[in-house]
Each structure stands twice: as structure tokens, then as C-alpha cells.
Write a structure and sequence with these properties.
heterodimer, A: about 425 residues, alpha/beta, Aspartate Aminotransferase, domain 1, Aspartate Aminotransferase, domain 2, 2 domains, seven-stranded mixed beta sheet, 15 helices, 15 strands, B: about 140 residues, alpha+beta, Sufe protein. Chain: A, three-stranded antiparallel beta sheet, 3 strands, binds pyridoxal-5'-phosphate
Chain lengths: ~425, ~140
């Protein structure tokens, strides 16, 4: 695409989604900040660490306040009107989540603390019950630690073997190696839908089909995909999906495990406590039905309600518009950054989201992130909870800029200008 | 907190022109130290003579400007000192970085004073102390 064509395309995209208008919904990035480092952006923070967590719109902040001011009570037990209302809102939130990812039933949605807890839940409640010594799990080499360590722990406990789909230099999975990883002991595939280091969107649907043809269930880590691209669990036909509310405009401390009913039914509880039981004697208990079987104790009621508000906010914008806008913004960012001599990208997959890992000359990522901070730009530096990726690439860390729909083309220009300054400063 | 407090001229100078970078070819004590969180890595080579004096220190490493400048400054601080004196300055530096000692304590130690600013950036303290921990290990072997 030529530059001119690209600009025209961008204008069309802007017509569909106006980041300047949307930014007004987010207090933290729309308010003026003190400090000369924010001068170049009219006193506003350039927030480019959205893969870590996103900012929160007023709609979500108000939903939390409204819950605590008007509806606060414990759920599933109070016999008074207020308690009913809290329960109703909590369960409505579950339905909102179910519709958002097109789950068949709301009971297939388990509220957790986040993607991490959702994956641990499956490792514990499904893995402990169904896996035996010698069984195998297929992961990829590009997993976030949260979709690696739970399986390592389980593998150690149960004497399982972990196998890994390797990634290629461009940050995509090496599919020529996939078939050979499956065998008669393979019991699960657990993989990221979108890499938080490379930005690669993995072609999971084909892999899921391949696994299903061998009757092997698939868990998707949707922590990076669900906030940015339409995810339809029935279309993908994944058996489990884990994601976090805080990476999609929602509050921290709330996340989701989606599981197909037949799998959730066949699992043991995750934690013991109130709400997850049906009948309790001194020596034994029977379990509540799904999803309550997995939600021991008082849940994060406000968090679930806040997440539902975030989903409604995203739905109002339209997920497809968000994806398209972010892809244009990402392409622009990569084209502009690529003009800098000494730039190196980690991950150049054709199918990708707005996660851009890079290095510039041999400026250490920590120095880079600190320098960008001095220019009013927040990016991430480090191993991004994916140390095995760094080891394979033989780099200590990367700098990562990650985008959301409220980021603007102007902010990309500011980033590129700041990168130029960093080159001067450190060389 | 200002960026300039952290990346002072002296620090950039040590980073761009590290003192005592390289390898010691003769017999020496060699230690490696790593900060897995940052991926910073340093290899120190140390020669201590029969009187317990640090004769020579050289380092090779990868890391940010703070960790590499700090390594360069550390070598300048310990060369020529007795083991006991070297240990003392290491302890003092680490205590300052941990916040257990006033940053002004570094004023007496030449270029080290430039690292005072690091204390205000807790995530960078590990970078600044990498070489110092490595040196402590070298003296203890
Ligand atoms: C791909 C991926 N998986 C899992 C997680 C873990 O999410 P959380 O820390 O919200 O549980 C993250 C977030 O950093 C991620 O990027």
C-alpha cells in the first residue's frame, strides 16, 4: 500500500471510530497532567502499555460506584430485596459475558480473578482429575508464564510430559512441527490466541480442529485476543477460554473462564468454601451445579458488574471497528518506526494485533522505557512474563508498545519522535 | 522524579566509555551474576594479591546504562583497596541503594555520587547493585 492510499484508508477508518472522542470517556488519559514531560501532548499521558492493562472509562468507574452506593449485598444468600438485586446484577453480568463471546449458556461462564486464575482452575480441577502419569500436554513456545507455569506444576505432580509448538523468527508458530507433537498420550492443547510479545494472532481454529479430530480438548489463553478482536467460542469451538477484565476496560481482580458445559460438569471443584456446595455433612459434601461449583466464597461482585459495563461499552463502539482501527494504527506505527535506522522488531506476523516489541540500536529496553517516560510516554520494558521467548531470541528483554482504540496516529508520531531523541541521547 | 537525576552526565560517560571493561588473561577469580528480571548479566574477573589487595578487576556484561555504569564505577572503587576496605564500600553502597543509609554517604566516593538518584527509582536499584553483588561474591570465594 502506498503512503497516500494508506492515508486515505486511515481517514475512512477514523470516520468509523473517533479515538479523540472516545478518549474523553477515560479520565486518566483525558485529564491534563502536571510536568513538562507531558507538554508535547498538550499535557496528556501517551499510554502505550495496554497489553499490561488498559485504562478505565467512566462507564465502568460509575458502574462500580453505583453498585457500592445502591446495590451492595452478598449474592446467592440474602433473602431481602437488596440481596436479590445484587444477585440479579451479578448473574446479568454473567449473561453479558456469555453473549460477548457467544457462549451457549451463561452457566459456562465462571468468574475468576483473571486469566491466570482461570488457567490454574483448569489445571487443578480438570488436570488433576483427568490426567495420569505419562500423559502429554501440548503448549507453544510463546506462552505467557500464566499458561506455562500451571502446567509445569501439574506436570511435576502428575509426571506429565509437556511438548511445545516452536515459533519461527517472525513470531509465528511453526506448523510443520505440529503434527509430530501429537500422539496417543496427548490429552490437552493449551495455547495463546494472541501473543503478548509478538502480537501474533495464532490460527487457532485449524489447530482446534486438528486436536478435536483426535478427541483432544483445547484451552485458549484469550487474555490478549478477547479485548481486541471478536472472539466467538462456538465458531472457534475451543473447549476452554481464559481472559482478564482489566485488559479490556474492566476492573482488576475479575476475569473469566469459559468452559463447555460437558467439561465443566466433569470437573472437580477448584476451591472449597461457601456457595460451591450443595449439601454439607461433617465428613462430606456434594457440589453445587456449574458454574457455582467453581466460585467458592463471596465472589468479586463489583468486579463482575464492572466487567459487564466494560463489555457494554466495547459493544457500543463495536468490536469489529475496534479491530480494524487498531490494525490500521499498528500498520502505521510499524511503517513509521521502520524508518528509524537501528530498529528491530520482534514479531512480524501478517495476522497480528497492536502489540509491538522492538529494540533500537543497542539501547537497553530499561533505558529506553525510562527515556520514553521522560517524554511522557508509557511503554513496557522487560521479558513480558515470557522468559522462554527471550531465551530463544537470545535477548535480555524488549521494549513493547501496545495499543488500544483510544490511541491516536498523533501519539504514534510522538513515540517515533521520542525514539529519535533516545538514539541521540544514548549514542 | 526527574529523568535527569537518574541519567547524569557521569553515568552516561561510564556507560559509553566503561572503565576496566574486558577480560583478565592471567589467573584470576571469575564470577558471574545475573538479574533474571531484567536479563542483565555480568562476568567479573578479579585478581587479589598475596597481601589481600585487589590488584585488578575487569568486567564483561550486558545490561542497561545504570547497571553497566555502576559496574564501571565499582571497579574504580575497589581496585587498590584491601579486601576489607572493598567489602566496606560494597556494603555501604548496597545499604544506600536499599534505603538503609542516606544517599549522601555516596558523596565521599567520587563518581559514585552520581548514582544517588537511583534510590528514587526502586525498580532500578537491582540494576545498580548487580556488579556490587558480583564483587562481593568474588571477594568471598
Ligand atoms: C497472553 C497473556 N496471558 C495471560 C495473562 C495473564 O493475565 P492476568 O495477569 O490478568 O491474569 C496475560 C497478561 O499479562 C497475557 O498477556
Amino acid at each position: 500500500m502506498s503512503e497516500a492510499q494508506f492515508q486515505i484508508k486511515n481517514k475512512n477508518i477514523l470516520r468509523n471510530l473517533d479515538p479523540y472522542k472516545l478518549r474523553q470517556d477515560f479520565p486518566l488519559i483525558s485529564k491534563k497532567l502536571e510536568g513538562k514531560k507531558y507538554n508535547s501532548n498538550n499535557g496528556h499521558l501517551v499510554y502505550l502499555d495496554n497489553a499490561a492493562t488498559t485504562q478505565k472509562p467512566n462507564a465502568v468507574i460509575r458502574a462500580l460506584m453505583n453498585y457500592y452506593e445502591n446495590d451492595n449485598a452478598n449474592v446467592h444468600r440474602a433473602l431481602y430485596e437488596l440481596g436479590d438485586r445484587a444477585t440479579q446484577k451479578y448473574e446479568e453480568s454473567r449473561k453479558t459475558v456469555a453473549q460477548f463471546i457467544n457462549a451457549k449458556h451463561a452457566r459456562e461462564i465462571v468468574f475468576t480473578r483473571g486469566a491466570t486464575e482461570a488457567i490454574n482452575l483448569v489445571a487443578s480441577a480438570w488436570g488433576r482429575k483427568h490426567l495420569q502419569a505419562g500423559d502429554e500436554i501440548i503448549l507453544t513456545e510463546m506462552e505467557h508464564h500464566s499458561n506455562l507455569i500451571p502446567w509445569q506444576l501439574l506436570a511435576k505432580e502428575k509426571k506429565l510430559t509437556l511438548r511445545f509448538i516452536p515459533f519461527l523468527n517472525n513470531g509465528t508458530l511453526n506448523f510443520s512441527r505440529v503434527k509430530s507433537l501429537f500422539n496417543e498420550r496427548t490429552r490437552l492443547v493449551a495455547m495463546t490466541h494472541m501473543s503478548n510479545v509478538f502480537g501474533t494472532i495464532n490460527p487457532v481454529r485449524g489447530l482446534i480442529r486438528m486436536a478435536h479430530s483426535r478427541c483432544i480438548p483445547v484451552l485458549l489463553d484469550g487474555a490478549q485476543s478477547v479485548p481486541h478482536i471478536p472472539v466467538d467460542v462456538q465458531y472457534l469451538d475451543c473447549d476452554f477460554l481464559a481472559f482478564s477484565g482489566h485488559k479490556m476496560c474492566g476492573p482488576t481482580g475479575i476475569g473469566v473462564l469459559y468452559g463447555k458445559q460437558e467439561y465443566l460438569d466433569a470437573m472437580d471443584p477448584y476451591q472449597g468454601g461457601g456457595d460451591m456446595i450443595s449439601s454439607v455433612w461433617l465428613e462430606k459434601a456434594t457440589w453445587n451445579e456449574i458454574p457455582y461449583k467453581f466460585e467458592a466464597g463471596t465472589p468479586n461482585i463489583a468486579g463482575a458488574i464492572g466487567l459487564a459495563a466494560a463489555i457494554r461499552y466495547i459493544n457500543e463502539i463495536g468490536m469489529e471497528k475496534i479491530t480494524r482501527y487498531e490494525q490500521a494504527l499498528t500498520t502505521y506505527a510499524i511503517l513509521e518506526m521502520n524508518k528509524l535506522p537501528g530498529i528491530r522488531f520482534y514479531g512480524i506476523a501478517p495476522e497480528r494485533g497492536g502489540v509491538i516489541s522492538f529494540s533500537l540500536d543497542n539501547i537497553h529496553p530499561h533505558d529506553m522505557a525510562q527515556f520514553l517516560d521522560s517524554q511522557g510516554i508509557a511503554v513496557r520494558a522487560g521479558h513480558h512474563c515470557a522468559q522462554p521467548i527471550m531465551r530463544k531470541l537470545e535477548i535480555p528483554a524488549t521494549t513493547r508498545a501496545s495499543l488500544y482504540f483510544y490511541n491516536t496516529f498523533e501519539e504514534i508520531d510522538l513515540l517515533v519522535a521520542a525514539l529519535k531523541k533516545a538514539k541521540e541521547f544514548f549514542n | 522524579m526527574e529523568f535527569e537525576d537518574l541519567y547524569q552526565e557521569i553515568i552516561l560517560d561510564h556507560y559509553k566509555h566503561p572503565r576496566n571493561a574486558g577480560e583478565i588473561k592471567r589467573e584470576c577469580t571469575s564470577v558471574e551474576h545475573e538479574n533474571p528480571v531484567c536479563g542483565d548479566h555480568i562476568k567479573l574477573m578479579v585478581v587479589i594479591d598475596d597481601d589481600g589487595i585487589v590488584q585488578d578487576v575487569k568486567f564483561i556484561g550486558t545490561g542497561c546504562a545504570i547497571s553497566m555504569a555502576s559496574a564501571s564505577m565499582m571497579t574504580e572503587q575497589v581496585i587498590g583497596k584491601s579486601k576489607t576496605e572493598a567489602m566496606k564500600i560494597i556494603r555501604e553502597f548496597v545499604e544506600v541503594m536499599r534505603g538503609d543509609e542516606s544517599p549522601d554517604a555516596l558523596d565521599e566516593h567520587g563518581d559514585l555520587t552520581a548514582l544517588k538518584g537511583v534510590v528514587k527509582f526502586p525498580v532500578r536499584v537491582k540494576c545498580a547493585t548487580l556488579a556490587w553483588h558480583a564483587m562481593k561474591n568474588a571477594l568471598n570465594t
